[in-house]
Each structure stands twice: as C-alpha cells, then as structure tokens.
Amino acid sequence: MADPVLRAQHVQVRFDAGRVRAVDTVSLEVGRGEVVALVGESGCGKTTLIRSVVGLEPLAAGSVEVEGRPIGSSGKGRALRAVRRRVQMIFQDPTGALNPRHSIYEAVAEGLRIHKVKGDEAALVSDALAAAGLRPPERYLRRFPHELSGGQKQRVLIAAAMALQPALLLADEPVASLDASIRGEILALMRSYVERDGVSIVAVTHDLGLAWNIADRVAVMYLGRIVEVGPAEAVLRSPQHPYTRALLSVVPETGHLEQQILTGETPDPSKVPSGCRFHPRCPVVASGEAARLGIEDRCRGVDLELEVVAEGHEVACHAVSVRST
Amino acid sequence: MSVLELHDLCVTYRTEGGKVPAVRGVNLTIEEGDTVGLAGESGCGKSTIAAAVLRLLPKGTRVTGKVLLNGEDVYSMKPGRLRAVRWTGAAIVFQGALHSLNPVRRVGLQIEEALRLHQTVPVGKMAARVDDLLERVGLPGAHASRYPHQMSGGQRQRVLIALALACDPQLLIADEPTTALDVMVQAQVLALLEELQRERGLSLLFITHDLSVLTHTCRRLAVMYAGRIVEEGLSAEVFARPEHPYTRALAAAFPTIGDTASRMNPQGLPGDPPDPSALPTGCPFHPRCDRAVDECATADVTLRPVADGAAAGWRAACVHVGVDRG
Prior knowledge:
The structure holds two protein chains of two kinds. Chain A is α/β, with parallel strands linked by helices. Among the domains of chain A are: 95-165, no CATH class; 231-323, no CATH class. Helix content of chain A is 37%, strand content 21%. Chain A is built from 15 helices and twelve strands. Chain A has helices spanning 46-53, 77-86, 94-97, 104-114, 121-131, 138-141, 150-162, 180-197, 208-214, 232-237, 242-249, 283-286, 289-292, 296-301, 318-324, and strands at 6-15, 20-30, 35-39, 61-66, 69-70, 87-90, 168-172, 200-205, 217-222, 225-231, 307-310, 313-315. In chain A, the strands form two sheets. An eight-stranded mixed beta sheet of chain A has the order 6-7-8-3-9-10-12-11, with helices on both faces. Chain A has a four-stranded antiparallel beta sheet with strand order 2-1-4-5, covered by helices on one side. In chain A, helix 4 (104-114) runs parallel beside helix 7, helix 5 (121-131) crosses helix 7 (150-162) and helix 7 packs parallel to helix 8 (180-197). Chain B has helices at 46-53, 79-88, 97-100, 107-118, 126-136, 153-165, 183-200, 211-217, 235-240, 245-253; strands at residues 2-15, 18-31, 35-39, 62-69, 72-73, 90-93, 171-175, 203-208, 220-225, 228-234, 304-305, 315-316. In chain B, strands 6-7-8-3-9-10-12-11 form an eight-stranded mixed beta sheet, with helices on both faces. Classes of the chains: A alpha/beta, B alpha/beta. The interface between A and B is large, with 43 and 43 residues.
C-alpha cells in the first residue's frame, strides 16, 4: 500500500511477563480515508492492538508507524504527543469517557489546549460540535454530560476527537452501548468525516453489521492473530476462514449460512493451541473434512500465516490453501 | 390458560423531579408454552414491565391495571403467596450477570439457597439437583464450587439461567440476557433458551432492543415506545413488513449482511428516545417520524388492526395503519 496512514508490522503485545500473547504477530495497513473493521470475540486482542497504536501498550516486538512516524515502545514526550494528535480514540461507554464535572465546552476544548492548537478556541469548539451534529452548538456548550443522552455524549466525544483533525480515528465498539435507533446515526456521522475530511478509521467491534454498514475492509482476529482480511464485501459475503463463517452464521440477520455455533468459551491467550490456533473449535476439523482433505495433521501441528486467496483478500487456513491449489 | 395477562397496566415512578409515567396502559397475554418478545429502547418501559410482573418495583411506585399470573392477581397476593410465586410461577434473568450473583458465595450454594427457600427438593438430593441444573445449561457440575469471578460472562449468564430454572417456573422473563455477551456466546445462550422452551414447554417473555434477536427466538412480538405497545403480531410478519414507522426503524437498525441497500448506508432515527417525564403531545413518536402528518401532533393513536394481519392479532398504533398500504 502506498503511503498508508497506519502501518503495523509484526506487532506483538504480551502480558504477564510474556506468558500471555495478547497480540501475536499482527500486520495491518490502513490507507488514507479507509475504514477498517477489526472484528472478533472478547479476548481476541483487537482492543489491545489499537491501544498499541496510540502507545498505550508497549510492543514486545514489531513496529507501528502513523503517517510514516514510528510509535516506539519507548516513545514519550513531545514525539509521542505529536503522533497522538494525529491519532484519536473514542470508546464504547461515552458516559465513562466524559468528566462529569466538565461542561461540554471544556470536554472539547481540553484536547485543543493539550495539543496547543492554534486559532480561536471558542470557534473551534463550536465548529466541532456543529460538525458532530450538535446544532446549534450554543445550546450544548454550557451543559454537562448528565444532561445529554447517550447518543449526544458519543457525539461530544467524536467532536472532541475530530477537533484535533486526526489522520486516524480509532473507535472501540463505538455504538455497542447505544440504543438501536441511535446506532445508525452515529455510524453515518463517522462515515461523514471520512467523506469530508478523509480521516481513516479503525473500528474495533464484534458487530458484523457495523462492518457491513461502514467498513471498506474487514480484518477478523482470533486469539491474537488476524485470520482473515479483505474487502468488506468479499469477507462478509463469501467468508473463507471457518471462524469467519461461524461468526457470520450466528448473526441473526444472515440467512444464507447454516447456523454454526462454536462450543466452548473464547479461548485463553495464555494457552495458545499448537498448529492452527483455531483447530480445537474448528468445524472443518470436527466434521472430519480436514481428515478427508488429508490436512488434519497440519491443522493440529503446523502454524500458518495469511495467504492471498483473491486480490486484497487473505486467509490463514490449511483447508482453504489446499482447496485453492 | 394464559400464563401471564397484563390488563391496562400503568406504572408511574415517583422521583424527586415528580411523577414519571414509565408504562402507560399495556395489554399483553402470554399463552402457555408461547414465546413473546418485547422490543424497545432505553426508557420505553420494557424492563419496568418485567419488574412489575413480580412486584419488584421500588416502594412508592404507583401501579394500576392488572397483572395475572396463571389467572391469579399478583397485586392482591399476600406476602407468603408472592414469595412462593416468585421463582416457581415466574423467574427473571437479568442482564448484568455479574451484579446479580453474590461475589463471595460459590454459585452452587446460591442455587441451593433458592431450592431451600422453596423446599422443592429434599436436602439429601440438593447437590444432585444443582449438578443437574448446571449441566442442563451446559456447564460441568463441578462448576458449582466456583465463585462468580472465576467464570466468564457467558458462564455467569448460564448460572443465572440455571438459577431461574431452579424451581421449575412456568414463565421465564429474560431481560436483555445476551446484551453484554459476545456474538458466539449470545448464540449459545439463545440456543439454550430455545431448547429449554421446546423441551419443557417453558413460556418465555424475552426483552431486548435487538429486534433481529427477538425475531429468531420469539413467536410473537410487541414493540414498545414511550410506555406503550405501538405494534404487535407474529414476529416473522412484523419484522418482514413492519407497519409502524418506529418498528421499521428498529428493524433497519441492525442491517442484513449482504443487503445492498444497507451497505455503506447505516440507518438511524434522528433525535433521541423521549424522556418519560416529558412526553411529546399526540403520538409520542411524531417528532422523530418521517411519515408524520399534522394530525400526529395532536391525535394519540391507539392500536388498530393491520388490514391483512388482523387474524393473527397484528395491530399497530399509527394513523397510517389501515388507511394506505404504501
């Protein structure tokens, strides 16, 4: 990819003195004005991965660059602040993310002050609120978070993030705590910043409908790895990895796949299985199909990397590799 | 006989800011073995209904109308009778599994407590019954000796379901039981509820804001807005061809993957759900409605039959219903 906004290469993040491989060698590039949905179950490492992008998690290995500038694990001070202005983050729970004693004006102005943004502060705050759909902004400036609805609070946080004109917006489950009718409005707002300002977005979610609604590309994570990545249409319409297929089959609104409920809980990143890390839950292995294809030993014993199956579409699955050759 | 009947149920909370009408005249019937979904957003009154069924509302809350459990009026029950009916007549599974369990007691003991209070099982068979309940919700019996923090969110939600089933209730009320769970765990819990419903003829009242989940789990569906039911009928029909503009918006909120119309086109509703203490005039949905006409600001429409679905009890509260079918 030419001139990506985000380039993460072979990123590893470990917890607990290295015993927990939360992110286990992940590479991801995000282009300018591109929306990437990072999907997977809790504990798959998706949130840890984006936290490492803003320097909130030290890297055990690999590198992260934003607009060509590295965010090193030792990054601090002015260099980190400069990169952080270009990367903003919004969270699942807007109530927890806002200081209850700060007015809406303060909530948006704080970032401008920290990053010493030039210009008329009051005008910048008003413009940011209006752009986030809080119109007229004067109606909101002096209010406090408890006077706003959940959807309005999330708009305030988006306004505060976008006021800094970031190149990359990281959104961690941006609509999961919002009411159903508000969800679409917030997603449409996020998409509008992409069209207007050309911001890139990485949205972490377990909601595949969100990916279908706003993402250009989808990356599916399982136990610290990306197991499938590609254009949203391709990944969501014709998923290749058995894990992606299972995830899609349990979304109530996908009629075309036979429901495949994986048993067991989300696996434990401190005990990553040998071979393909998905094999203990994999329907291809369980159904005996892997044995018929003569790859069961590989599924159980040989770890594997992403392989290109179509343009821009990569999958890490022994069965997919065998079938395509 | 109907397991649950709500007749013109009204619930008004008393708060510092004044009276808040949370439920404003709801009629709902659940037949034995039936599954009914109650959909709506925060503040629409759906969880208030769950609490009202078992008289779990805060003191001072005003309740009018009737709640009949197996034909018996819940609000005229003596305390002893009420205690017996809770858990055995109807049981509730709440959303926050972590907060509903006692963090310093092993989950097995918490299930035993319910069994002991209702004396449904002889003391000697208590442990076996706990094992049996846990296994029925797909947990190994050995988990009885665990504390809630030693289990995952999905496992705790299963413990709550096991707990709710402990005294063999006829009606299970599930209030957003899967909202905090991952998609795969949600699918596991939903499959479990379906299985229990099928095997034991359990009646189910399922409450959530996710219409697509309800459509999968429940035969009938009621959509609430601002304390009232605004549309009801068979889930499959209502979801496929919603009559009320609000139902239509809820149905569109979670897109069908593969549907070209929703690709790069998230659908929402402008505005926010109304504040129950300051409801709009007329049809409470009119400020957010894209089909509102002048009449909507003043006329408060009640449920009326949908022309070709009347036989199945399909009704919607909108001025356009029964007039034009565009």
